[in-house]
Specification:
Number of domains: 2
Number of helices: 14
Oligomer: single chain
Distance between the termini: 34 Å
Bound molecules: 6-O-phosphono-beta-D-glucopyranose
CATH superfamily of the largest domain: Dihydrodipicolinate Reductase, domain 2
Length: 506
C-alpha cells in the first residue's frame, strides 16, 4: 500500500457526529499505518466557533472514545495536521476566508494544489457547498486534483436525486465525485467478489440452475436513537435498502467484471440494477412489507415504540422495517426470487447474504421424517464476519438419517489480521482516486427508479398495511409469507428476544 499524493482534506460539518465517530478515527488509523500523504493538512469547517486548539482537543477526545486502532501513541503528532475554520457554508462570501485558509495551509506545509472536500453535513447542503466552492474556483483541477466526497442520502426520491445530480454536474465531473456507501467499504462485502471470482467451486453454481433463492438481511438491534428527526424523512427502505442492500445485491448478482478497474465493476453492478424487474402497483402489497416497532419489554427493560422516540411524529407512518421480493430479469437469474429485509429494533445486529441452493432432484434419504439437506452458503458481513456452508451429513447409526451441519470460517480466527473499518478503506481509496467502491450516479438513479413505485404507494395508499412489531422481534410475521415455498422462511440467526433471550445459531 502506497501513500497517497499530498493534499488538503477539508471536512464540512466538522463539529458533527460523523466527523468524530468515523472520519477522524479513520484518518488517524491511516496516519498510524503511514498511509496518509507525506504532506497533509486536515481542515475542519463548520459554523460552531472553535479555535484550532479547541477543535484538536475535541478530536483528541473522540480518538480515545471511538478508537479504531489500539495504537494511541501518535495522537499528538496527528493533531498537528489538524486545523479549523468557522464559517456558515451557506454564505458564499465566507468562501473567501476558506480559500485564504486553504492557501495558507498549502504555503505553510508545502502542499500542492490537490484537495478533497468531504461533505459530512445535512443533505440540504449537498448542492450549496459544491456550488459555493466552484464560485471561488476551488473545484478547478488545473493545479492539482479536486475531489468531493458525499455521504448518503443521495436525494430523497428519483426527482430530488436528479436535481442533485444536475446541480453537482454544473461544476463538478463524475470523476471528481465519491459517493460513500459505507457498505462497499466493508471487507466482507468486498469478499463477495473474492468468494465468487477466485474460487472455481462456487461460480459454476452461481445461477438459476442451482440456486433457489437469495436472501440479503441487515438487521439492527438498536432503535433510531438520537436520529428520529432524520429517520422520519427516511425510513428503512430509503435508509438501508435503496443504497447499502441494493449494492450488496449488485455484487452478489453481477457478471464477472473484465478487470478490477472501477468502471468494469461499476458497469456490471449497473447492469444488475437495469435488469431489476419493475414492480407493478398492483403487486406492491404482496411483494413489499413494511413495519414499525412498537413498545415492548426486552430482558425486563421497557423499550419505547418508534412513535415515542425523540423527534418522531406520534402518528408517524415511517417504516422501521422493510422487506422486499423482486426478480432480476437476465440470463443468469431469470425466475429466481431475491429477498431483502432491513429493520431496527430486531433481536440482533447481523448483516448477511444467504444463497439458498436448490434441493437434490430426488429425496433418497427421506426416512424417519428427515429429508435431504438445505444447502446454504451464508456470507456473513457483520458482526461475526465469515463464511458458513451448510450441508447434509449422515447421522451415525443404522439407517440413513441426514442432519444439516456447518462448515464455518470466522475472520476472527485469523488473529494476526485486523479488519480495517469501512471509512478507512473508503477514505484511503478516495485519496488514491480509486472510485471502485463508491456509488456512481447512474447506479444511484437506477436504484431510485426501481424503488419509486413502492415508496410512492407507501406514501399515498393507506390501504397498504403498516404492521406493528414488538421491539426485539424479527419484524412483521407477514414478511415470512413473502418467501416462496413450503416451510421456507427467512434465516433467523437468533430467536426473538421477546421470547426467551438471545440464542444465536450463527
Ligand atoms: C447507515 C444508516 O447508513 O447505516 C443507519 O443511516 C444504520 O440507520 C447504519 O444504522 C448501519 O450501518 P452498519 O455499518 O452498522 O450496518
Amino acid at each position: 500500500m502506497v501513500r497517497p499524493e499530498d493534499h488538503v482534506f477539508v471536512i464540512f460539518g466538522a463539529s458533527g457526529d460523523l466527523t468524530k465517530r468515523m472520519i477522524v478515527p479513520a484518518l488517524y488509523s491511516l496516519f498510524v499505518q503511514n498511509l496518509l500523504p507525506e504532506k497533509f493538512a486536515l481542515l475542519g469547517v463548520s459554523r460552531t466557533e472553535f479555535s484550532d486548539d479547541t477543535f484538536r482537543q475535541k478530536m483528541k477526545e473522540a480518538l480515545t472514545e471511538f478508537k479504531v486502532t489500539d495504537d494511541l501513541s501518535k495522537i499528538d503528532e496527528f493533531l498537528k495536521t489538524i486545523f479549523y475554520l468557522s464559517i456558515d457554508p451557506k454564505n458564499i462570501v465566507a468562501y473567501s476566508s476558506l480559500e485564504e485558509k486553504i492557501n495558507n495551509l498549502r504555503t505553510n506545509n508545502n502542499i500542492g494544489g490537490n484537495a478533497i472536500y468531504y461533505l459530512s453535513t445535512p443533505p440540504n447542503l449537498y448542492s450549496v457547498i459544491p456550488r459555493n466552492l466552484a464560485s471561488y474556483g476551488l473545484n478547478k483541477q488545473g493545479n492539482g486534483w479536486k475531489r468531493l466526497i458525499i455521504e448518503k442520502p443521495f436525494g430523497y426520491d428519483l426527482e430530488s436525486a436528479e436535481k442533485l445530480k444536475n446541480d453537482l454536474m454544473q461544476s463538478w465531473t463524475e470523476e471528481q465525485l465519491f459517493r460513500i456507501d459505507h457498505y462497499l467499504g466493508k471487507e466482507t462485502v468486498q469478499n463477495l467478489l473474492v468468494t465468487r471470482f477466485s474460487n472455481g467451486i462456487f461460480e459454476p453454481l452461481w445461477n438459476r440452475n442451482y440456486i433457489n433463492h437469495v436472501e440479503v438481511t441487515s438487521s439492527e438491534s438498536i432503535g433510531v436513537e438520537e436520529r428520529g428527526g432524520y429517520y422520519e424523512s427516511s425510513g428503512a427502505m430509503r435508509d438501508m435498502i435503496q443504497n447499502h442492500l441494493l449494492q450488496v445485491v449488485g455484487l452478489t448478482a453481477m457478471e464477472p467484471p473484465t478487470s478490477l478497474e472501477p468502471s468494469a465493476i461499476r458497469n456490471e453492478i449497473l447492469k444488475v440494477f437495469q435488469a431489476l424487474r419493475p414492480i407493478k402497483p398492483e403487486e406492491i402489497k404482496d411483494v413489499a412489507i413494511r413495519g414499525q416497532y412498537i413498545a415492548s419489554k426486552i430482558k425486563g427493560e421497557e423499550i419505547k415504540g418508534y412513535r415515542e422516540e425523540k423527534g418522531v411524529n406520534p402518528e408517524s407512518i415511517t417504516e422501521t422495517y422493510a422487506a422486499l421480493k423482486f426478480y432480476i430479469d437476465n440470463w443468469r437469474w431469470g425466475g429466481i426470487p431475491f429477498y431483502v429485509r432491513s429493520g431496527k429494533r430486531l433481536p440482533t445486529r447481523v448483516s448477511e447474504v444467504v444463497i439458498h441452493f436448490k434441493k437434490t432432484p430426488h429425496f433418497l434419504f427421506s426416512t424417519n421424517g428427515n429429508t435431504n439437506a438445505n444447502n446454504q452458503l451464508v456470507l456473513r458481513i457483520q458482526p461475526d464476519e465469515g463464511v458458513l456452508l451448510k450441508f447434509g451429513m449422515k447421522i451415525p447409526g443404522t439407517g440413513f438419517d441426514v442432519q444439516t451441519v456447518n462448515m464455518d470460517f470466522h475472520y476472527s480466527d485469523l488473529t494476526s489480521v485486523r479488519i480495517p473499518t469501512a471509512y478507512e478503506r473508503l477514505i484511503y481509496d478516495s485519496m488514491k482516486g480509486d472510485s471502485t467502491l463508491f456509488a456512481r450516479t447512474d447506479e444511484v438513479m437506477a436504484a431510485w427508479k426501481f424503488l419509486m413505485p413502492v415508496l410512492d404507494a407507501w406514501k399515498n395508499d393507506e390501504s397498504i398495511p403498516l404492521y406493528g412489531y414488538p421491539a426485539g422481534t424479527w419484524g412483521p410475521e407477514r414478511a415470512d409469507e413473502l418467501i416462496e415455498g413450503i416451510n421456507t422462511t427467512w434465516r433467523y440467526p437468533c430467536k426473538n428476544l421477546a421470547d426467551d433471550g438471545v440464542y444465536c445459531e450463527l
